[in-house]
Amino acid sequence: MKKVITYGTFDLLHRGHVNLLRRAKELGDYLIVGVTSSDFDKNRGKINVKQSLMDRIEAVKALGIADEVIPEEYYGQKIDDIRNYDVDIFAIGSDWRGHFDYLNEYCEVVYLDRTEGISSTQLREDRNHISLGIVGASRDIAKFIDESKYVSGVDVIAVFPDGDDFNLAGRVPTAASLEDLLEKSDAVYVANAPARRYQTARAALKAGKHVLSESPVALAASEARSLFELARESNLVFHEAIKTAYALAFSRLTLLVKSGMIGTPVSVHATCTSQSFKSPAGSLIGWGPIASLPVFEILGTDYQNATAASLTSREDGTDVYTKVDFVYEGACATFEVGSGVKSEGELVVAGTKGYVYVPAPWWKTDYYEVRFEDLSRNKRYFYQLNGEGIRDEISVFAKTIQDGKKPNLDITEAQTVALSGLIEAYRDGSMTVHSLGLEAEGCGISFFQN
Ligand code: C2G
Fold this sequence. Notes:
Elements: E1 3-8, H1 15-26, E2 30-36, H2 38-43, H3 53-63, E3 68-72, H4 77-84, E4 89-93, E5 108-112, H5 120-125, E6 130-135, H6 139-148, E7 154-160, H7 178-184, E8 187-190, H8 194-206, E9 210-214, H9 221-233, E10 238-241, H10 248-258, E11 265-274, H11 283-299, E12 305-312, E13 319-328, E14 331-339, E15 347-351, E16 355-358, E17 367-371, E18 379-382, H12 390-403, H13 413-428, E19 432-438, H14 445-448
Parallel strand pairs: 1-2, 1-4, 2-3, 4-5, 6-7, 6-8, 8-9, 9-10, 11-14, 12-19
Antiparallel strand pairs: 11-15, 12-13, 13-14, 15-16, 16-17, 17-18
Helix pairs in contact: 8-9, 9-13, 11-13
């Protein structure tokens, strides 16, 4: 007798799950299904699971496909199960391709094609399953797709690269056009070139789709504002995807500052630089959304004045380095961004009683310190970081669609509009931008790459 085993959360069972179980059963004579326990899901970082373990087990049993249903409770259990049940084949969906190759040592490993595009009509009646389409193709999008697997109820169904050339083949099917993608999706993640995002998000909202847009969502304040208005009129969710804004450590840090632990905040200094990541649109557009986040979050968007200084790339005329200085009533802020320039990527929030220090790279930190002149009062705070914040960003977006009520977001509409406004003022010259000239000969990314 050929024994097959498969595992899954099987939350709010749908056609994709059922197809997988059927095909797994067809591989042999006896099917064992491992249903992940809530604790194990928590441990492996799966979020947004709606049903209890008992309900999920009952639902799988009720299908009548499995010969045996067991809970999956710990890392390494798969090896134990394969040995104990004398399993011949381990089967799992193709979204896990490669991940379970280590089990080849114990039995045959089969990756079964996932059911793509669970019909959106079916889904529209059932808000719990969201077919997510993606516009754009990049290394970051590959990461986004990997993270989406950990969010229950979200299924990435297709990608429309929109001119981007990163190869996502093998991960998700490609849509022929934006219209084709929109047709198949309930919601879209807009992550194409910054200059194209506004038009794309607008088209998606007009087609009645919820939108999660990479930041900046638009290169002008009025455009950003109009996206929010359009979403409101159409009763759709529109969120800005700044992963750091969804990271628990960052969120707790801003609450701590707002609660007065370091007194009144007097200055915010954030630095974000990279030599391996080059935003084709320059460092202000590439890094500005993250770097400005603590500034707007802690000091607000009503600054009195902002000035910038930029160093220009010899290669393509974009800013390889930009420093922006803000003046507020009673406080000031600075952020430094660079691609092809390297500095300490830390965040410091100074207050009248003490300061917060977040070590590099602060935008993906799980840890920060609150420091005082009296060293004995210093405190360190540690948090769990799920996928650099991307997982929570997807989960909050999904939950807002599913629950139909506004979430308690750290990032507000005013902040999104202020960021687009800052980029607009920088580009159209309405803000003072000191030129630091062209970068020195021989500088730039290629110089550092070997
Ligand atoms: N699946 C599918 N088609 C879909 C959605 C899911 O074929 N449209 C498959 C998945 O690939 C997986 C199974 O259905 O094999 C269960 O999916 P989930 O409940 O999302 O569980 P998952 O997180 O993939 O758990 O350690 C591995 C995990 O236990 C697998």
